[in-house]
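Q: Joint fold for the lines below.
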Amino acid sequence: MSEVIVVTSGKGGVGKTTTTANVGTGLAMLNKKVVLIDTDIGLRNLDVVMGLENRIVYNLVDVVKGNCRAKQAMIKDKRYPNLFLLPCAQAGDKNSVSPEEMKKLTDELREEFDYIILDCPAGIEQGFKNAIAGADRAIVVTMPEVSAIRDADRIIGLLEANEKKRADLVVNRIRMDMVKRGEMMSIDDVVEILAIDLIGAVPDDENIVIATNNGEPLVGQDSLAGQAYMNICKRILGEEVPLLDLNKKQGLFSKLFKRS
Amino acid sequence: MKKMKNSVVIKGNKYGIIVMLDKNLPFDELKKEVADKFKASSQFFGNSSMGVTFEGRFLNNDEIRELLDIISANSEINVVCVVDNDKEREAYFKKSVEEHLSDLSNNDGQFYRGTLRSGQVIESESSIIILGDVNPGAKVVSSGNVIILGSLKGTVYAGVSGEATSFVVALEMQPMQIRIGDYIARASDDNNNNKKSKKAKPETKIAFVEDGNIYIEPLNKEVLNDIHF
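A: Joint structure:
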């Protein structure tokens, strides 16, 4: 029973790649066999966030065009043996691949993996069409900001038009202090507008920047964002996990407690 | 050159086009002018269907026929009727056209189920009832009334063919823009309305035209009784 999940948002910079990396790593930590596919041809990113850039030999375009086998292009993660990355090409553009070819590839990978997670490029053009072609379900990432929500709304409409029956929402980069002051939309406000199921809420956490720069996904770590991502992974597996209390301050005390 | 320009003038109104003809030009020259004018503007009109009125000159039936042939030869306009500029008759036509339009828009309705999202447009020749929200960036266009059983945060054009008696109802009224007939109202630029509206309990409201303005008022029995269509 394998699933193909596309992580998409419409707008750029809301955290698609970070979400892909963390959800993929999290699922691998939960003993699932996972492959991450970067479909942002020309703007390769996911390999950097995963810290696997130096291992790239072949890429997605090579696989699709038959220059190599999928096995050869997939990079085994340095931390988890059941996590793989299929990087995209830095040369070429989104038109180097067609939706049919992507669907064929994902269907092929289904036989070997539990989860195939596609990192979708920003926008609604060819790259988006490629990424959603083979997907069973979608994770729509947005942040509490009008432009990001507008784009997410558009994306959900397009997913519905393409008969992707299931789309779940991740509200990313929430700043509870701003929500409290009434300067940022709350999670409830966002869910009310977009009217799809919420699968996770991730706070804006500076640890994410650090983790990204180090090429080490922070899922499962003690930070709020790390816990939030782990919860998303569990919900993907069908577990019922209550929403994290984002109001909780990561003070000195709680840190000391956890260490002991 | 100036004289040439003025000998044939095409004007438009809600029901079609008016072709103003020079009184003194010989008919053969006039035909050429009409041909040139329509050829030049054929792209503008496209293949639309409309009524035509000739003004400024008395024409007999043969002449009208000739001009119509010229129009269809030089443009893709589909002339559905020729309306003469007799005031009484015009009023009669106007009335019957409008009656027909309001019949169409008010006695008929169409349901749409689901949330209209940014970029989605729904258009209808009749009134429309939406079971869901209209999100910012989405658009509802109807010749009749628009009723939204959800929140309206996008754009609505009701009475798109000029029916100012059309109305818009929504359970939560926060439209980006409302157009009814030829009138337009837009949301205020007040940025704080997000915060305010959160505190206020959402209330069913109706938007309608009165004295050339669009009013948005809470929907109650009194207002409902005032609706005429």
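Q: Anything notable?
A: Chain A has one domain: 3-242. Residues 178 and 184 of chain A are 5 Å apart (CA to CA).
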